[in-house]
């Protein structure tokens, strides 16, 4: 790894990509604080983690609880090298549905929760003059998609926020990595048939490889880089006729 990672926080660790990241970091010898709402799923993860995974039940929309929990976790771990923000929701949204409660949940979990946790890690790592922050954004954030306007907006916001944090923190020796997966087989995509779908296990390996390389921003898998280069450049009058 570009920076040695022995103490990590994974926010959104209870299933899918976050669970795989947690177990792989533990297998590499790191001690990992696993955060999410479902305590039973975190306990099961801790059982599999060989004594290296500690569960911390937390709802990221409880923003006021984040600072004290961050301090407690860092004290328990004896320091911090990596914060991975993986938590996300993507509720089904029908073509003509305009649901503020669903939209609010996506903004609160996918973006505001990320800001709450990454701000805390950013301040800690700036003072420490080292550390790695990785945020799991999405290819969906590269264009405004008609299928789920606020999911795309939350991921576009997360991508921009991570870039800004990188530009703020790199001078202090802190690495901020943005990863943008395409479709991954997880509970979030259950029942969906999507192109170039990969298992969560492979997504986690590729995300950890980006962290190890100190990537600025990486598509997962790599095939999405050329695909998104094309999709980003489709003129708006054509893109609005598609549903990609
Ligand atoms: N699957 C894909 O195709 C895909 C593609 C691109 C990007 N992504 C992104 O990858 C990330 C992981 O998603 P996944 O596919 O692995 O889905 P997942 O299995 O549904 O995992 C989502 C995680 O977010 C946590 N979470 C949701 N709401 C939370 C809250 N209020 N407080 C704390 N934790 C919360 C969940 O834990 P609890 O329910 O226990 O709280 C769970 O650990 C998400 O950010 C997603 O947007 C996924």
Number of strands: 9
- If helices are DSSP runs of H or I spanning 4 or more residues, what is the number of helices? 8
Q: What characteristic shape results from the CA principal axes?
A: globular
Which radius of gyration do the C-alpha atoms yield? 17 Å
What is the CATH C level class, in words? Alpha Beta
Enumerate the strands of the largest sheet in spatial order, edge to edge or round the barrel. 3-2-1-4-5-6-9
Tally of domains: 1
Share in β-strands: 15-25%
Give the CA-CA distance, first to last residue. Answer: 35 Å
Task: Just name the CATH architecture.
Answer: 3-Layer(aba) Sandwich
Features:
244 residues, alpha/beta, Rossmann fold, single chain, binds NADP nicotinamide-adenine-dinucleotide phosphate
Description:
With 244 residues, the chain is of the alpha/beta class. It has a single domain (7-239), classed as 3-Layer(aba) Sandwich (Rossmann fold), CATH 3.40.50.720. Helices cover 45% and strands 17% of the residues. The chain is built from eight helices and nine strands. It has helices at residues 16-27, 39-48, 66-77, 100-128, 149-169, 200-213, 224-232, 236-239, and strands spanning 7-11, 31-36, 53-57, 82-85, 131-136, 174-181, 184-185, 198-199, 217-220. The strands form two sheets. A seven-stranded parallel β-sheet has the order 3-2-1-4-5-6-9, with helices on both faces. The chain has a two-stranded parallel ribbon with strand order 7-8. β4 (82-85), α4 (100-128) and β5 (131-136) form a beta-alpha-beta unit. α1 (16-27) packs across α6 (200-213) and α4 runs parallel beside α5. The longest helix is centred in the middle third of the chain and has 29 residues, at 100-128. It starts with 6 loop residues before the first strand and ends in a 5-residue tail after the last helix. The model has no long low-confidence stretch (mean pLDDT 96). Bound molecules: NADP nicotinamide-adenine-dinucleotide phosphate. Residues 12-18, 36-38, 41, 59-61, 86-90, 109, 136, 138, 181, 183-184, 186-189 line the site of NADP nicotinamide-adenine-dinucleotide phosphate.
């Amino acid at each position: 790894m570009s920076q040695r990672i022995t103490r990590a926080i994974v926010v959104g660790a209870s299933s899918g990509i976050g669970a795989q990241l947690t177990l792989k970091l533990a297998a590499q010898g790191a001690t990992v604080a696993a955060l999410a709402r479902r305590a039973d799923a975190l306990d099961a993860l801790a059982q599999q983690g060989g004594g290296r995974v500690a569960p911390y039940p937390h709802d990221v929309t409880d923003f006021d609880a984040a600072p004290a929990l961050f301090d407690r976790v860092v004290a328990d771990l004896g320091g911090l090298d990596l914060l991975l923000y993986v938590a996300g929701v993507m509720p089904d949204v029908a073509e003509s549905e305009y649901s503020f409660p669903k939209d609010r949940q996506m903004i609160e979990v996918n973006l505001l929760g990320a800001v709450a946790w990454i701000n805390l890690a950013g301040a800690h790592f700036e003072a420490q003059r080292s550390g790695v922050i990785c945020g799991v954004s999405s290819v969906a954030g590269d264009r405004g998609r008609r299928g789920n306007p606020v999911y795309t907006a939350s991921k576009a916001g997360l991508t921009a926020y991570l870039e800004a944090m990188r530009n703020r923190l790199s001078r202090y020796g802190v690495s901020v990595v943005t990863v943008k997966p395409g479709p991954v087989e997880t509970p979030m995509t259950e029942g969906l048939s999507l192109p170039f779908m990969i298992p969560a296990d492979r997504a986690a390996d590729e995300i950890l490889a980006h962290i190890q390389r100190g990537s600025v921003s990486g598509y997962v898998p790599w095939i999405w880089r050329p695909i998104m280069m094309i999709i980003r450049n489709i003129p708006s009058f054509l893109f609005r006729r598609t549903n990609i």
